[in-house]
Amino acid sequence: MGEPISVGVVGCGYWGPNLIRNFKLLRKCRLKTMCDASEERLRHLRTLYPDVEGVTDYCNLLQDQTLDAIVVATPVKYHYPIAKASLLSGKHTFIEKPMASTSAECEELIEIAERNGLVLMIGHTFLYSSPVRKIVEIVQNGDIGEIRYINSRRLNLGLFQKDINVAWDLAPHDISIILHVLGDSPLSVNCQGNANVTNGIEDVTNMSMTFRNKRFATIQSSWLEPRKIREMTIVGTRRMILYDDVQTLEKIRIYDVRVDRPPHYDTFADFHYSYHYGDSYIPKLAQEEPLKTECQHFLDSIEAKTQPLTGGRAGLEMVRILEASSQSLRQNGAPVFLAPTQEGQNGVAAKQNAECV
Ligand SMILES: NC(=O)c1ccc[n+]([C@@H]2O[C@H](COP(=O)([O-])OP(=O)(O)OC[C@H]3O[C@@H](n4cnc5c(N)ncnc54)[C@H](O)[C@@H]3O)[C@@H](O)[C@H]2O)c1
Questions:
Q1: What single-letter DSSP state applies at residue 197?
Q2: Which residue in 67, 219, 260, 299 is a FRET match for 207, CA 20 to 30 A apart?
Q3: How confident is the model at residue 329 (pLDDT cuts 50, 70, 90)?
Protein backbone atom coordinates (compact mmCIF):
# COMPACT_ATOMS: atom_id res chain seq x y z
CA MET A 1 0.00 0.00 0.00
CA GLY A 2 1.28 3.48 -0.92
CA GLU A 3 0.89 6.67 1.08
CA PRO A 4 -2.53 7.02 2.74
CA ILE A 5 -4.94 9.39 0.99
CA SER A 6 -5.22 12.61 2.94
CA VAL A 7 -8.85 13.77 3.39
CA GLY A 8 -10.59 16.86 4.78
CA VAL A 9 -14.31 17.04 5.62
CA VAL A 10 -16.26 20.31 5.27
CA GLY A 11 -19.52 20.41 7.26
CA CYS A 12 -19.69 18.73 10.65
CA GLY A 13 -23.40 19.05 11.44
CA TYR A 14 -25.69 16.02 11.59
CA TRP A 15 -24.21 13.92 8.76
CA GLY A 16 -20.58 15.10 8.52
CA PRO A 17 -19.53 13.33 11.76
CA ASN A 18 -20.62 9.99 10.25
CA LEU A 19 -18.29 10.59 7.30
CA ILE A 20 -15.52 11.68 9.67
CA ARG A 21 -15.93 8.53 11.79
CA ASN A 22 -15.72 6.28 8.74
CA PHE A 23 -12.80 8.00 7.02
CA LYS A 24 -10.99 7.99 10.37
CA LEU A 25 -11.35 4.20 10.58
CA LEU A 26 -10.22 3.36 7.04
CA ARG A 27 -6.63 2.20 6.72
CA LYS A 28 -6.08 3.75 3.31
CA CYS A 29 -6.98 7.18 4.64
CA ARG A 30 -5.47 9.87 6.79
CA LEU A 31 -8.28 12.13 8.02
CA LYS A 32 -6.36 15.37 8.28
CA THR A 33 -8.82 18.23 8.68
CA MET A 34 -12.38 18.85 9.88
CA CYS A 35 -13.99 22.13 8.88
CA ASP A 36 -17.19 23.75 10.09
CA ALA A 37 -18.27 27.37 9.94
CA SER A 38 -19.55 26.94 13.50
CA GLU A 39 -16.84 27.07 16.19
CA GLU A 40 -19.25 25.32 18.55
CA ARG A 41 -19.53 22.25 16.27
CA LEU A 42 -15.75 22.15 15.92
CA ARG A 43 -15.26 22.29 19.68
CA HIS A 44 -17.45 19.20 20.03
CA LEU A 45 -15.62 17.33 17.24
CA ARG A 46 -12.21 18.20 18.65
CA THR A 47 -13.20 16.41 21.87
CA LEU A 48 -13.96 13.27 19.77
CA TYR A 49 -10.90 13.53 17.50
CA PRO A 50 -8.21 15.56 19.26
CA ASP A 51 -5.55 14.48 16.75
CA VAL A 52 -7.46 15.92 13.74
CA GLU A 53 -7.07 19.63 13.03
CA GLY A 54 -10.24 21.72 13.04
CA VAL A 55 -10.77 24.94 11.04
CA THR A 56 -13.72 27.26 10.42
CA ASP A 57 -12.74 28.41 6.91
CA TYR A 58 -12.65 25.84 4.11
CA CYS A 59 -10.10 27.96 2.20
CA ASN A 60 -7.51 26.46 4.58
CA LEU A 61 -8.20 23.07 2.99
CA LEU A 62 -7.86 24.44 -0.54
CA GLN A 63 -4.43 25.86 0.24
CA ASP A 64 -3.16 22.69 1.93
CA GLN A 65 -0.84 21.07 -0.65
CA THR A 66 -0.74 17.83 1.36
CA LEU A 67 -4.51 17.29 1.16
CA ASP A 68 -5.64 14.90 -1.62
CA ALA A 69 -9.41 15.01 -1.25
CA ILE A 70 -12.25 17.11 0.16
CA VAL A 71 -15.62 15.80 1.35
CA VAL A 72 -18.52 18.28 1.26
CA ALA A 73 -21.29 17.66 3.82
CA THR A 74 -22.78 21.14 4.16
CA PRO A 75 -26.37 22.23 3.37
CA VAL A 76 -27.08 21.78 -0.36
CA LYS A 77 -26.80 25.45 -1.36
CA TYR A 78 -23.08 25.41 -0.42
CA HIS A 79 -22.25 22.18 -2.30
CA TYR A 80 -21.52 23.91 -5.61
CA PRO A 81 -19.23 26.77 -4.45
CA ILE A 82 -17.24 24.54 -2.10
CA ALA A 83 -16.97 21.62 -4.55
CA LYS A 84 -15.98 23.97 -7.38
CA ALA A 85 -13.24 25.55 -5.27
CA SER A 86 -12.11 22.08 -4.19
CA LEU A 87 -11.86 20.77 -7.78
CA LEU A 88 -10.16 23.95 -9.00
CA SER A 89 -7.55 23.53 -6.29
CA GLY A 90 -6.84 20.03 -7.65
CA LYS A 91 -8.55 17.95 -4.94
CA HIS A 92 -10.61 14.82 -5.55
CA THR A 93 -14.09 15.72 -4.33
CA PHE A 94 -16.92 13.85 -2.66
CA ILE A 95 -20.25 15.70 -2.41
CA GLU A 96 -23.18 14.63 -0.30
CA LYS A 97 -26.52 14.15 -2.01
CA PRO A 98 -28.07 15.97 -3.79
CA MET A 99 -25.00 17.04 -5.75
CA ALA A 100 -25.98 20.72 -6.17
CA SER A 101 -28.97 23.07 -6.41
CA THR A 102 -29.21 23.09 -10.23
CA SER A 103 -28.26 20.83 -13.12
CA ALA A 104 -26.17 23.66 -14.65
CA GLU A 105 -24.02 23.64 -11.49
CA CYS A 106 -23.66 19.85 -11.73
CA GLU A 107 -22.59 20.07 -15.38
CA GLU A 108 -19.92 22.62 -14.53
CA LEU A 109 -18.53 20.48 -11.70
CA ILE A 110 -18.40 17.41 -13.96
CA GLU A 111 -16.57 19.41 -16.62
CA ILE A 112 -13.96 20.70 -14.14
CA ALA A 113 -13.40 17.23 -12.67
CA GLU A 114 -13.03 15.62 -16.11
CA ARG A 115 -10.72 18.36 -17.40
CA ASN A 116 -8.45 17.95 -14.38
CA GLY A 117 -8.59 14.14 -14.13
CA LEU A 118 -10.11 14.25 -10.64
CA VAL A 119 -12.50 11.83 -8.99
CA LEU A 120 -15.93 13.37 -8.37
CA MET A 121 -18.21 11.18 -6.31
CA ILE A 122 -21.73 11.78 -4.96
CA GLY A 123 -23.05 10.35 -1.69
CA HIS A 124 -25.83 8.13 -3.00
CA THR A 125 -25.27 5.99 0.07
CA PHE A 126 -27.95 3.35 -0.41
CA LEU A 127 -26.27 1.93 -3.51
CA TYR A 128 -23.48 0.78 -1.18
CA SER A 129 -25.85 -0.99 1.24
CA SER A 130 -26.18 -4.78 1.43
CA PRO A 131 -29.99 -4.84 0.98
CA VAL A 132 -29.86 -2.78 -2.22
CA ARG A 133 -26.95 -4.80 -3.58
CA LYS A 134 -28.90 -7.98 -2.82
CA ILE A 135 -32.05 -6.61 -4.52
CA VAL A 136 -30.05 -5.74 -7.65
CA GLU A 137 -28.57 -9.26 -7.64
CA ILE A 138 -32.04 -10.84 -7.33
CA VAL A 139 -33.48 -8.64 -10.08
CA GLN A 140 -30.56 -9.26 -12.43
CA ASN A 141 -30.82 -13.04 -11.86
CA GLY A 142 -34.36 -12.82 -13.23
CA ASP A 143 -35.84 -14.25 -9.99
CA ILE A 144 -38.75 -11.83 -9.86
CA GLY A 145 -39.42 -11.68 -13.61
CA GLU A 146 -39.97 -8.31 -15.28
CA ILE A 147 -40.45 -5.39 -12.91
CA ARG A 148 -43.95 -3.91 -13.23
CA TYR A 149 -43.64 -1.07 -10.76
CA ILE A 150 -41.82 0.13 -7.63
CA ASN A 151 -43.46 1.90 -4.73
CA SER A 152 -41.45 3.63 -2.01
CA ARG A 153 -42.31 5.43 1.24
CA ARG A 154 -39.81 7.39 3.33
CA LEU A 155 -41.70 9.07 6.17
CA ASN A 156 -40.81 10.43 9.59
CA LEU A 157 -41.44 13.34 11.95
CA GLY A 158 -38.72 15.72 10.68
CA LEU A 159 -35.91 16.41 10.34
CA PHE A 160 -37.16 19.67 8.78
CA GLN A 161 -34.64 21.34 6.43
CA LYS A 162 -34.59 25.08 5.87
CA ASP A 163 -33.27 25.36 2.30
CA ILE A 164 -34.76 22.35 0.46
CA ASN A 165 -38.14 20.63 0.40
CA VAL A 166 -38.75 17.06 1.51
CA ALA A 167 -38.41 15.69 -2.04
CA TRP A 168 -34.89 17.13 -2.39
CA ASP A 169 -34.03 15.91 1.12
CA LEU A 170 -35.41 12.35 1.22
CA ALA A 171 -36.37 11.25 -2.30
CA PRO A 172 -32.72 11.10 -3.57
CA HIS A 173 -32.36 7.86 -1.59
CA ASP A 174 -35.39 6.29 -3.29
CA ILE A 175 -34.58 7.71 -6.73
CA SER A 176 -31.02 6.37 -6.64
CA ILE A 177 -32.24 2.90 -5.63
CA ILE A 178 -35.05 2.85 -8.22
CA LEU A 179 -32.83 3.93 -11.14
CA HIS A 180 -30.19 1.41 -10.12
CA VAL A 181 -32.67 -1.46 -9.75
CA LEU A 182 -34.45 -0.66 -13.03
CA GLY A 183 -31.20 0.13 -14.83
CA ASP A 184 -33.01 2.94 -16.61
CA SER A 185 -33.66 6.69 -16.56
CA PRO A 186 -37.16 8.16 -16.24
CA LEU A 187 -39.05 9.61 -19.18
CA SER A 188 -41.24 11.90 -17.07
CA VAL A 189 -41.75 13.08 -13.49
CA ASN A 190 -44.92 14.21 -11.71
CA CYS A 191 -44.97 15.63 -8.21
CA GLN A 192 -47.65 16.96 -5.89
CA GLY A 193 -47.19 18.18 -2.35
CA ASN A 194 -47.96 20.64 0.39
CA ALA A 195 -46.01 23.10 2.51
CA ASN A 196 -47.84 22.63 5.80
CA VAL A 197 -45.32 24.04 8.27
CA THR A 198 -42.94 26.42 6.44
CA ASN A 199 -44.19 28.65 3.65
CA GLY A 200 -42.81 27.57 0.28
CA ILE A 201 -41.02 24.42 1.54
CA GLU A 202 -43.07 21.29 0.90
CA ASP A 203 -42.96 18.88 3.84
CA VAL A 204 -45.08 16.19 2.12
CA THR A 205 -44.65 15.14 -1.52
CA ASN A 206 -45.85 12.37 -3.82
CA MET A 207 -43.64 11.87 -6.83
CA SER A 208 -44.05 9.46 -9.72
CA MET A 209 -41.69 8.63 -12.53
CA THR A 210 -42.50 6.83 -15.76
CA PHE A 211 -40.04 4.61 -17.59
CA ARG A 212 -39.97 2.76 -20.86
CA ASN A 213 -42.10 -0.39 -21.25
CA LYS A 214 -44.93 1.17 -19.18
CA ARG A 215 -42.95 0.79 -15.95
CA PHE A 216 -43.39 3.39 -13.25
CA ALA A 217 -42.30 4.20 -9.71
CA THR A 218 -43.96 6.22 -6.95
CA ILE A 219 -42.20 7.88 -4.04
CA GLN A 220 -43.93 9.31 -0.99
CA SER A 221 -41.75 11.58 1.15
CA SER A 222 -42.79 13.26 4.40
CA TRP A 223 -41.42 15.07 7.44
CA LEU A 224 -44.91 14.98 8.96
CA GLU A 225 -45.58 11.41 9.99
CA PRO A 226 -45.86 9.86 13.45
CA ARG A 227 -43.82 6.75 12.54
CA LYS A 228 -40.51 6.24 10.81
CA ILE A 229 -41.23 4.30 7.61
CA ARG A 230 -38.59 3.26 5.07
CA GLU A 231 -40.38 0.81 2.82
CA MET A 232 -40.08 -0.14 -0.82
CA THR A 233 -41.99 -2.78 -2.78
CA ILE A 234 -40.71 -4.05 -6.09
CA VAL A 235 -43.45 -5.82 -7.99
CA GLY A 236 -42.30 -8.30 -10.60
CA THR A 237 -44.25 -10.52 -12.97
CA ARG A 238 -43.17 -13.67 -11.04
CA ARG A 239 -42.33 -12.52 -7.51
CA MET A 240 -42.38 -9.41 -5.33
CA ILE A 241 -39.78 -7.92 -2.99
CA LEU A 242 -40.51 -6.01 0.18
CA TYR A 243 -37.56 -3.94 1.45
CA ASP A 244 -38.09 -2.56 4.95
CA ASP A 245 -35.02 -0.61 5.96
CA VAL A 246 -36.32 0.03 9.48
CA GLN A 247 -35.87 -3.68 10.31
CA THR A 248 -32.50 -4.48 11.79
CA LEU A 249 -32.00 -7.99 10.40
CA GLU A 250 -34.81 -9.03 8.08
CA LYS A 251 -34.68 -6.06 5.74
CA ILE A 252 -35.68 -7.94 2.57
CA ARG A 253 -38.45 -10.46 2.07
CA ILE A 254 -39.20 -12.09 -1.28
CA TYR A 255 -42.79 -13.16 -1.81
CA ASP A 256 -43.53 -15.89 -4.31
CA VAL A 257 -46.89 -14.38 -5.23
CA ARG A 258 -48.38 -13.35 -8.53
CA VAL A 259 -51.62 -13.10 -10.42
CA ASP A 260 -52.18 -14.37 -13.95
CA ARG A 261 -55.00 -13.81 -16.42
CA PRO A 262 -56.16 -16.80 -18.46
CA PRO A 263 -54.88 -16.36 -22.00
CA HIS A 264 -58.18 -17.51 -23.60
CA TYR A 265 -61.72 -17.98 -22.37
CA ASP A 266 -64.98 -18.60 -24.16
CA THR A 267 -67.60 -17.28 -21.77
CA PHE A 268 -67.50 -14.80 -18.95
CA ALA A 269 -68.12 -17.72 -16.55
CA ASP A 270 -64.86 -19.34 -17.71
CA PHE A 271 -62.87 -16.24 -16.86
CA HIS A 272 -60.90 -16.55 -13.60
CA TYR A 273 -57.81 -14.72 -12.41
CA SER A 274 -55.32 -17.22 -11.07
CA TYR A 275 -53.68 -16.17 -7.81
CA HIS A 276 -50.44 -17.86 -6.88
CA TYR A 277 -49.46 -17.89 -3.19
CA GLY A 278 -46.08 -19.54 -2.66
CA ASP A 279 -43.46 -19.31 0.08
CA SER A 280 -41.71 -16.17 1.13
CA TYR A 281 -38.04 -16.10 2.07
CA ILE A 282 -35.57 -13.77 3.71
CA PRO A 283 -32.11 -13.64 2.16
CA LYS A 284 -29.10 -13.35 4.43
CA LEU A 285 -27.41 -9.97 4.22
CA ALA A 286 -23.88 -8.91 5.05
CA GLN A 287 -23.83 -6.68 8.14
CA GLU A 288 -21.80 -3.73 6.87
CA GLU A 289 -22.25 -0.02 7.33
CA PRO A 290 -23.09 1.31 3.83
CA LEU A 291 -21.23 4.53 4.56
CA LYS A 292 -18.03 2.64 5.28
CA THR A 293 -18.29 0.84 1.92
CA GLU A 294 -19.04 4.17 0.25
CA CYS A 295 -16.03 5.95 1.81
CA GLN A 296 -13.80 3.00 0.88
CA HIS A 297 -15.09 3.17 -2.70
CA PHE A 298 -14.11 6.86 -2.89
CA LEU A 299 -10.57 6.04 -1.76
CA ASP A 300 -10.36 3.03 -4.12
CA SER A 301 -11.53 5.18 -7.06
CA ILE A 302 -8.83 7.77 -6.30
CA GLU A 303 -6.16 5.10 -5.99
CA ALA A 304 -7.20 3.21 -9.14
CA LYS A 305 -8.07 6.42 -11.07
CA THR A 306 -11.49 4.94 -11.98
CA GLN A 307 -14.99 6.40 -12.18
CA PRO A 308 -16.95 5.74 -9.00
CA LEU A 309 -20.28 3.91 -9.15
CA THR A 310 -22.02 7.13 -8.10
CA GLY A 311 -20.04 9.75 -10.01
CA GLY A 312 -20.94 13.24 -11.17
CA ARG A 313 -23.23 11.99 -13.96
CA ALA A 314 -25.37 10.03 -11.50
CA GLY A 315 -25.50 13.19 -9.37
CA LEU A 316 -26.54 15.27 -12.39
CA GLU A 317 -29.27 12.83 -13.33
CA MET A 318 -30.63 12.97 -9.79
CA VAL A 319 -30.69 16.79 -9.80
CA ARG A 320 -32.46 16.83 -13.20
CA ILE A 321 -35.18 14.61 -11.72
CA LEU A 322 -35.46 16.81 -8.61
CA GLU A 323 -35.67 19.95 -10.79
CA ALA A 324 -38.44 18.28 -12.79
CA SER A 325 -40.24 17.45 -9.53
CA SER A 326 -40.07 21.12 -8.46
CA GLN A 327 -41.38 22.24 -11.86
CA SER A 328 -44.23 19.73 -11.63
CA LEU A 329 -45.04 20.94 -8.08
CA ARG A 330 -45.38 24.49 -9.42
CA GLN A 331 -47.72 23.14 -12.14
CA ASN A 332 -49.94 21.22 -9.68
CA GLY A 333 -48.53 17.82 -10.56
CA ALA A 334 -48.46 18.12 -14.36
CA PRO A 335 -45.99 15.70 -15.99
CA VAL A 336 -42.57 17.12 -16.82
CA PHE A 337 -40.81 15.26 -19.62
CA LEU A 338 -37.08 14.77 -19.36
CA ALA A 339 -34.81 15.16 -22.34
CA PRO A 340 -32.59 12.12 -22.90
CA THR A 341 -29.30 12.42 -21.04
CA GLN A 342 -25.98 12.82 -22.81
CA GLU A 343 -25.51 9.07 -22.31
CA GLY A 344 -28.99 8.36 -23.74
CA GLN A 345 -31.80 6.74 -21.78
CA ASN A 346 -29.43 3.90 -21.06
CA GLY A 347 -27.15 6.14 -19.02
CA VAL A 348 -27.94 4.38 -15.79
CA ALA A 349 -27.70 0.92 -17.30
CA ALA A 350 -24.30 1.80 -18.71
CA LYS A 351 -23.19 2.99 -15.30
CA GLN A 352 -24.28 -0.32 -13.80
CA ASN A 353 -21.80 -2.08 -15.98
CA ALA A 354 -19.01 0.13 -14.70
CA GLU A 355 -16.83 -1.19 -11.95
CA CYS A 356 -19.09 -1.86 -8.97
CA VAL A 357 -18.38 -2.15 -5.26
N1 LIG B 1 -26.15 10.23 2.55
C2 LIG B 1 -27.03 10.31 3.52
O3 LIG B 1 -27.63 9.33 3.92
C4 LIG B 1 -27.29 11.65 4.15
C5 LIG B 1 -27.99 11.75 5.36
C6 LIG B 1 -28.18 13.01 5.91
C7 LIG B 1 -27.73 14.14 5.27
N8 LIG B 1 -27.07 14.02 4.09
C9 LIG B 1 -26.56 15.21 3.37
O10 LIG B 1 -25.47 15.76 4.11
C11 LIG B 1 -25.44 17.17 3.92
C12 LIG B 1 -25.43 17.86 5.27
O13 LIG B 1 -26.64 17.59 5.92
P14 LIG B 1 -26.79 17.76 7.51
O15 LIG B 1 -28.12 17.20 7.85
O16 LIG B 1 -25.58 17.26 8.19
O17 LIG B 1 -26.85 19.35 7.64
P18 LIG B 1 -26.55 20.21 8.95
O19 LIG B 1 -27.21 21.52 8.73
O20 LIG B 1 -26.87 19.42 10.17
O21 LIG B 1 -24.97 20.41 8.95
C22 LIG B 1 -24.31 21.19 8.00
C23 LIG B 1 -23.06 21.78 8.66
O24 LIG B 1 -22.35 22.49 7.66
C25 LIG B 1 -21.80 23.66 8.27
N26 LIG B 1 -21.54 24.65 7.22
C27 LIG B 1 -22.43 25.38 6.49
N28 LIG B 1 -21.80 26.16 5.61
C29 LIG B 1 -20.47 25.93 5.78
C30 LIG B 1 -19.31 26.44 5.14
N31 LIG B 1 -19.39 27.34 4.16
N32 LIG B 1 -18.11 26.00 5.57
C33 LIG B 1 -18.02 25.09 6.56
N34 LIG B 1 -19.09 24.58 7.20
C35 LIG B 1 -20.31 24.97 6.80
C36 LIG B 1 -22.87 24.11 9.26
O37 LIG B 1 -22.30 24.92 10.28
C38 LIG B 1 -23.36 22.76 9.79
O39 LIG B 1 -22.68 22.36 10.96
C40 LIG B 1 -26.64 17.51 3.05
O41 LIG B 1 -26.25 17.57 1.72
C42 LIG B 1 -27.57 16.32 3.25
O43 LIG B 1 -28.45 16.12 2.16
C44 LIG B 1 -26.82 12.80 3.53
A1: S
A2: 260
A3: very high
